[in-house]
Design brief:
Low-confidence stretches: 1-10
Keywords: Cell inner membrane, Cell membrane, Membrane, Sugar transport, Transmembrane, Transmembrane helix, Transport
Mean pLDDT: 87
Protein name: Xylose transport system permease protein XylH
Organism: Streptomyces lonegramiae
Pfam families: BPD_transp_2
Strand order of the largest sheet: 1-4
Strand content: under 5%
InterPro entries: ABC_transp_permease
C-alpha cells in the first residue's frame, strides 16, 4: 500500500472578508465593537464641539491615556488567567509616593528612586502571587487586602501634609512634558509599526506554509498592513501639527508592543492563555501553574507602578487621592471595554489601549462640552456593562458552536 501523500499547504481563501464573516458568525467579535464605538464617539463629539479633533486636544489625549493605560495593560495579564487584581490603584499610588519620598524628602537621585519605585511594584505583585499560588487564597481576596494595606501605607508615607510636589523640570516630570519636535520622530514611529506588523505576519505565513497549515494570502497581509499604516501616519500628521511626538506616547506604544510579543510569540505567553482556558487542562499540558500565577501578578504590579509614576508626572505631585478607587475602576474598565474577557483566555495588550482611548475620549469630550463628571461615570459604567454583556454573548455563541 502506497504511503498517503502529504496534505499540500493551502491559503485561507476567504481572505479578510471571509474571515470577518466567520468570526461574526461564530461570535468572535474581538475588538470590532469598541473600534466602531470609538469612531462613533469621536464623530459625535466633533459634531458637538469642533475642537475635539483638533491637534492640541488629540495630542493631550495621547498623553492622558498613558498612565491609566499602563495600569490597564498589567490588568490584561491577570484577566487572561481568569482572575482579577483589585490592588493596582493602590500600588500605583504607593509607587508614586515612594518615589516622591525617596527623591524629594531623602534626596535620592531621580533615576534611582524611579527604579526602586518600579521594583517595589514588582515585589508587591510577587507577594500577591505567592499567597494566591502557594496558599490557594483567591486572587480577589489577596488583592483586596492589598488595596487596603497599600493605600494605608501610601497615606503614612505622605504624612500630615498629604502632598509632595515633584521637580517640574526633573526626570519624572519630563515623562509627560517632553516632546520630539522633529517631524521625523512621529513619522519614523508611524513607519516602524506597519513594517514590524508586515514582517511578523509574513514570517508567520512562511512558517505555516512550510508546515502545510492554512496561511494568510499576501493580499490579506497587505490590506491589514495598509490599514495600520493609514492610522499610524494620520496620527503622526496630527501630532506634528501641535508639538510633535510625546515621549509618553512613545514609551507607551513600545511597552505595549513588547508585552504583546511576550504574550503572543513566546512559550510564556502561550502558558498564560492556556491557564486562562482551564487550570487542570493547563497543568496536564505541563504548564507551571504556580509560576504563571505569580508572574502575571508581578507584571500587573510592575505596570501599576509605572502607571502611577506617569500619573504623578502629569500633575508633578503626589497626593492622597493618588491611587484612588476611580483609578482602579478605570483601569479595569479599559481592559474589559477593549475586548479582554473576564472569563480568561481571550485578550491582547492592545485591548487596553482601545479601552483607555474610549474612557479618556469620554472625559475629554465631556470636559469640552462642560458636562459634569458624574454623567461621565454613568456613561462609562454603561459602556462597561455593554462590553461585559457582549463578552458573555460571544462566549455563549462560541460554546454553542463548540469553539469555547
Amino acid at each position: 500500500m502506497s504511503a498517503r501523500a502529504p496534505v499540500p499547504a493551502r491559503r485561507a481563501e476567504d481572505g479578510v472578508f471571509g474571515e470577518f464573516r466567520r468570526r461574526l458568525g461564530s461570535g468572535e467579535l474581538g475588538s470590532l465593537p469598541v473600534v466602531l464605538g470609538l469612531i462613533l464617539l469621536w464623530a459625535v463629539f466633533e459634531i458637538l464641539n469642533s475642537n475635539f479633533l483638533s491637534p492640541r486636544n488629540l495630542s493631550n489625549l495621547s498623553v492622558d491615556i498613558v498612565g491609566t493605560g499602563l495600569i490597564a495593560v498589567g490588568v490584561v495579564f491577570v484577566l487572561l488567567i481568569g482572575e482579577i487584581d483589585l490592588s493596582v490603584g493602590s500600588v500605583s499610588g504607593l509607587a508614586a509616593a515612594a518615589f516622591a519620598v525617596l527623591n524629594v524628602n531623602e534626596g535620592l537621585p531621580e533615576w534611582l528612586a524611579l527604579v526602586i519605585a518600579v521594583l517595589l511594584g514588582a515585589l508587591i505583585g510577587v507577594v500577591h502571587g505567592f499567597f494566591f499560588a502557594r496558599f490557594g487564597v483567591p486572587a480577589f481576596v489577596v488583592t483586596l487586602a492589598g488595596l487596603l494595606a497599600w493605600n494605608g501605607l501610601t497615606l503614612y508615607l505622605l504624612g500630615q501634609s498629604g502632598t509632595i510636589n515633584l521637580d517640574d523640570q526633573g526626570l519624572v516630570a519630563k515623562l509627560t512634558s517632553y516632546y520630539f519636535h522633529d517631524i521625523a520622530a512621529a513619522y519614523g514611529l508611524a513607519a516602524l509599526g506597519p513594517t514590524a506588523f508586515f514582517l511578523a505576519a509574513y514570517r508567520d505565513r512562511w512558517r505555516r506554509k512550510a508546515a502545510a497549515m492554512p496561511y494568510r494570502p499576501l493580499h490579506e497581509i497587505a490590506v491589514r498592513t495598509g490599514a495600520i499604516a493609514v492610522v499610524a501616519f494620520a496620527a503622526a500628521y496630527v501630532l506634528n501639527r501641535f508639538q510633535g511626538l510625546p515621549l509618553a506616547l512613545l514609551i507607551f506604544v513600545v511597552l505595549v508592543a513588547l508585552l504583546d510579543v511576550l504574550l503572543r510569540r513566546t512559550p510564556y505567553g502561550r502558558s498564560v492563555y492556556a491557564l486562562g482556558g482551564g487550570v487542570e487542562a493547563a497543568r496536564r499540558a505541563g504548564v507551571r501553574v504556580a509560576w504563571v500565577r505569580i508572574s502575571v501578578l508581578m507584571v500587573s504590579g510592575t505596570m501599576a507602578a509605572l502607571g502611577g509614576l506617569f500619573l504623578a508626572s502629569r500633575i508633578t505631585s503626589v497626593s492622597q487621592p493618588s491611587g484612588s478607587a476611580i483609578l482602579l475602576l478605570n483601569a479595569l474598565a479599559a481592559a474589559v471595554i477593549g475586548g479582554t474577557s473576564l472569563f480568561g483566555g481571550h485578550g491582547r495588550t492592545w485591548c487596553a489601549v482601545l479601552g483607555i482611548l474610549v474612557i479618556e475620549s469620554l472625559a475629554s469630550g465631556m470636559a469640552l462640552l462642560s458636562i459634569q463628571s458624574a454623567l461621565q461615570f454613568m456613561i462609562t459604567g454603561g459602556v462597561l456593562l455593554a462590553a461585559v454583556v457582549l463578552d458573555s454573548l460571544s462566549r455563549s455563541s462560541q460554546k454553542t458552536r463548540g469553539r469555547a
